[in-house]
Amino acid sequence: MRIAPERIEEAAKELYVRALRDLPPDIKRGFDALAARETGATAKAVLGTMIQNIAVAERTGNLLCQDTGIPIYNVTIGRDAEVDGVALKAAIRRGCERSTKETPFRSSIVHPLTRANEHTSCGIGIPVIHIDFTDTFAGLRIEMIPKGSGSENNSWLRMAIPAEGVDAIKTFVVDCVLGAGGKTCPPTIVGVGIGGSADVCVHLAKVAATRALGTHCADPDGAELEGLLTNAVNMLGVGPQGLGGDATAFAVHVELAATHITMNPVAVNMQCHSARRSSVVLTADGVEYGY
Amino acid sequence: MAHHEITMPITEHEVRALAVDDTVTLHGALFGLRDATQIALFDHGRTTRFDLTGHAVIHTAPNVKKVVPSPAHPAGYEPLCVGTTTSARMERFTRPLMERCGVRIIIGKGGLAADSAAAFRERGGVYLAIVGGAAALETTWVEAIEDVDLDDLNPESLWKFRVRDFGPLRVAMDSRGGNLYAKVDADARGNRAAALAALGVKR
Fold first, then answer.
1. Residue in A with minimal Cα distance to B199
2. Would the N or C end of chain B have less CB density within 10 A of its end CB?
3. Is A267 within a domain?
4. Which domain holds residue A253?
5. Is A117 on the interface with B (CB under 8 A)?
6. How much is the pLDDT for B28?
């Protein structure tokens, strides 16, 4: 099936604004779970305000957060999907720009040296477009993530060495959460990348941070580590907005890749409580939006 | 833990009455600024026609829509989504904001560092914590964008909002040495050993 660029452009436009307005159901359930467990009075009030904000955004159709983020489009080309790769990238870029201008909302993207804002949410290398392939479904899936900067500014890579073992990974994650304090807009999803090369490790941390709550690392050792780390970071007491409390993280997510015999890399990337994402599956004649 | 309804601007005496964990709801004028605004003012020597003496500033760069100026939108901007950004990046601008512009209240998320705490003590000022990422709600507290300056920096212009029932916000750093972020950070660092022990970390 051929997926026309016009449909991809329309989807890219729609996905950005949907992500900004409508929080995924797994994140809403995550809020309910944290609020039910929270024992701190200030933290309860802060979580209550966050939950109230979700309802206000739904009622008014407004954006959840002022930060429209760095736009990321994750494209997965499934069975039987035929796309013109160059046209696909151009269509996503046009959709991203149209969403910004036609909604309208704030373009958060500037040139890194001149700081010039073209007011298009686009620039050199932005939107970020990742392309992958799968045989698990038919059609074309696009996931959109407006990645907020408060959490993105708290990203770290440590090229630990084998002699430091898994302890280095665990300690690094705890220290990153401590160092971030309230700057990441907690409660967060703490994304941890383990293994790979330096660039792969950082990318894995982003994949982990933006994965749906309730999903687990495909590797059983990685999944076990997720549970241990989630428990540990929630012992720290950083709390929602760094004002103290139990709810520091919704979860710690881990993604793994094999690495070199001399290497033990670990990266942390965080997702703020406005853990926004949207997705669409395009087939020959179908368009199905989701999260 | 008192609650204060405050119409801006405010005097040094009034701001010194605010203590950590008090709550505050603001009314009247509120100025929005952030990284580029303060780099322009304090690094590049630009000036503003606004008088910030005794006023509150919020770390923000709102989503706005350009419209024809009207009584509802005097500056020709409709506020679409007004939220708050992470304050820590703007730590070094607290002193010039207070010393050169006379600002008394900084509103933000995530807190400021030790030098800001000292400036609040010395000059008489507070940091009010708003819930970051709750912009849809925050926008309902903004009545209008009354004026705008340094608009070539848009969206990081110097915005003058008119607000009503803006809050409740929490006093998180006060003029008496109270600092909720420093306390939470010290407590969290105190919990580090227990967290690492729960992970089975040996060294």
1. A228
2. C
3. yes
4. 149-271
5. yes
6. 98
pLDDT digit string, tens, across residues B6-19: 999 999 999 999 99
> In 10 A of CB A65, how many CB atoms?
30
Say how far apart CA B12 and CA B6 lie, in whole Å.
13
In chain A, the residue whose alpha carbon lies closest to the alpha carbon of B201 is A167
- In contact, A272 and A278? CB cutoff 8 Å: no
Q: Please state, in angstroms and as integers, the Cα–Cα distance from residue A28 to each residue in A56, A72, A137, B84, following that order.
A: 14, 22, 27, 21
Which among B140, B155, B181 has the least Cβ separation from residue A182?
B181
Sign of CA dihedral A78, A81, A87, A88: negative
Summarize pLDDT for B45-62 with one digit per residue, the tens.
Answer: 999 999 999 999 999 999
ipTM of the complex: 0.95
Three-state secondary structure string covering chain A: CECCHHHHHHHHHHHHHHHHHCCCHHHHHHHHHHHHHCCCHHHHHHHHHHHHHHHHHHHHCCCCCCCCCEEEEEEEEEECCECCHHHHHHHHHHHHHHHHHHCCCCCCCECCCCCCECCCCCECCECEEEEEEEEEEECEEEEEEEECHHHHCCEEEEEECHHHHHHHHHHHHHHHHHHHCCCCCCCEEEEEEEECCHHHHHHHHHHHHCCCCCCCCCCHHHHHHHHHHHHHHCCCCCCHHHCCCCCCEEEEEEEEECCCCCCEEEEEEEECCCCCCEEEEECCCCEEEEC
- In 3D space, the residue among B22, B144, B32, B11 whose CA is nearest the CA of residue B90 turns out to be B32
What's the rounded Cα separation, in Å, for the pair B82 and B28? Answer: 16
Interacting residues of B61 by C-beta distance below 8 A, sequence separation 6+: A66, A106, B32, B34, B85, B155, B156
pLDDT one-digit tens code per residue, A151-161:
999 999 999 99
- What are the tokens at A114? 């001149």
A105 touches chain B (CB under 8 A): yes
pLDDT at A41 (0 to 100): 96
A171 and A261 belong to one structural domain: yes
CB pairs under 8 A between A and B: 174
Same structural domain, A179 and A238: yes
Same domain, A14 and A142: yes
Are A75 and A144 in contact by the 8 Å Cβ rule? The answer is no
In chain A, how many domains are there? 2
User: Is A32 a member of any domain?
Assistant: no
Give this prediction's pTM. Answer: 0.96
User: Of B63, B184, B195, which has the smallest distance from its Cβ to A66's Cβ?
Assistant: B63
A60 Cβ under 8 Å from any chain B Cβ:
yes
> Choosing among B24, B184, B187, which should be mutated to test the A contact, i.e. which has the most A CBs within 10 A?
B184
